[in-house]
Amino acid sequence: ILSLPEDFDLPDIQTRSPLLTRREAAAYLRLSEPTIHRLAASQTIARVKIGRRALYRREDLDRLIAQGARR
What is the pTM of this model? Predict the structure, then answer.
């Protein structure tokens, strides 16, 4: 079960940067953080590396949702 800190505001994700952290991407897709990591490792979704941080483009996540809806 995915548990987020009490101060984690999901609606706030939709108004911020187009780049999401793994935690934000997991909340956005309602998946676990390890699942996001596996999807990125298998190149199902792209990650943007900035220094040591891996970030995920909201548009890539939306594309993944759209592809899943077409199956």
Answer: 0.72
